[in-house]
Specification:
- By secondary structure, this protein is α+β, with helices and mostly antiparallel strands.
- The chain folds into 2 domains: 34-59 and 301-335; 63-96 and 110-252 and 273-291, no CATH class.
- Helix content is 30%, strand content 19%.
- Helix 2 runs antiparallel to helix 10.
- Belongs to the CDC50/LEM3 family.
- The chain crosses the membrane at residues 28-54, 311-332.
- It is found in: Membrane.
């Protein structure tokens, strides 16, 4: 009797939901549904792929290598020099208007920012402005946590220590007159990095927060002096620093350096003419067989130039159409006689 009462208590309610009697619908994948479905999906993918590919190829991209590997390169002397702030120049000519907005990137090759230990070599608490981690950096920053005098390094870690430090200026020569092209460095970093992930200590002046610490070994200036022209663009919220700290996933990458300021003669982009890029050459890449380049590019509704997505859509769409033809042949050969 007790056993029967226990079973009655544990028994689910006699409803359509608990007893799994809800009405259900299961499609029957017949040839009349599958084959047209594959054709429609294939045609849709091909259409999207063509649109993406045409748009990507309409984007203007100009790449200029300045590694200085060959003797004829304008920067060959700097690539072999140990002198800081070595100067070299690159000249190029635009025969037509380079449509705006124009973005100015620097690119690195054979540089593995995705290496695990490299990516972990930073102190997030320090970068968030926590002063207690200024004097005692995280062990994850080792060997770039203390200098040879046992003074804490701020910001610590391999990523910060290897920050890109080449600088560029761009000039345009027209009718014998050389004009500086205005470069805009504001807002080039991710919004979340600038407003959420990274913080400067609430100390005024900012320099006082770094008392008792030293700059990263490979830096020429401490973090609070990264931008002499804009005091608000110093410390851990410096735009160039934020761009560098967001690691690249692949060994060949480019990072945004500046935007061409769309004002005056440059409202529509870079006009046709002769240009010169004056480079302050500091960043060494020959030790790891790397390369450096400057990239100018504009964008479209789909972003920057990238043919992979369009090609992928075309391949998948074509495969769907081919498979639909194969299924139609198989169906016609093996199914139609039975139906007769």
């Amino acid at each position: 009797m007790v056993k029967q009462e226990s079973e009655s208590t544990n028994r689910p309610d006699n409803t359509a939901f608990t007893q799994q009697r809800l009405p259900a619908w299961q499609p029957i994948l017949s040839a009349g549904i599958v084959i047209p479905g594959f054709v429609l999906i294939g045609l849709a993918f091909i259409g999207i792929g063509v649109a993406l590919l045409v748009t990507s190829r309409s984007i203007q991209v100009l790449e200029l290598d300045y590694t200085g590997d060959s003797n004829g390169s304008p920067c060959s002397s700097c690539s072999q020099s140990v002198i800081a702030n070595c100067k070299c120049s690159l000249n190029f000519t635009l025969t037509t208007l380079f449509q705006g907005p124009v973005f100015f990137y620097y690119g690195l090759s054979n540089y593995f920012q995705n290496y695990r230990r490299y990516g972990a070599s930073k102190d997030d608490n320090q970068l968030y402005g926590d002063l207690s981690y200024f004097t005692s950096p995280s062990s994850s920053c080792s060997p770039y946590d203390y200098d040879s005098s046992k003074k804490p390094i701020v910001p610590c870690g391999s990523i910060a220590n290897s920050m890109f430090n080449d600088t560029f200026t761009l000039t345009w020569t027209v009718n014998g007159t050389t004009n500086n092209v205005p470069l805009d460095g504001k807002g080039i970093a991710w919004w979340t990095d600038y407003n959420i992930k990274y913080r400067n200590p609430s100390v005024t002046p900012l320099k006082n927060a770094f008392n008792g610490t030293v700059k990263p070994i490979n830096w020429a200036k401490p973090a609070y002096e990264l931008d002499a022209s804009d005091p608000s663009n110093n410390g851990f919220v410096n735009q160039d620093f934020l761009v560098w700290m967001r690691r690249a996933a692949l060994p060949n990458f480019r990072k945004l350096y500046r935007r061409i300021d769309a004002s005056g003669d440059y409202q529509k982009g870079l006009p046709a003419g002769n240009y010169t890029i004056d480079i302050t050459y500091n960043y060494p890449v020959r030790a790891f067989n790397g390369a450096k380049k400057i990239v100018f590019s504009n964008v479209s509704w789909m972003g920057g130039s990238n043919e992979f997505l369009g090609i992928a859509y075309l391949v998948i769409g074509s495969l769907c159409v081919v498979m639909s033809v194969v299924m139609l042949i198989v169906y016609a050969k093996f199914k139609f006689p039975d139906e007769e």
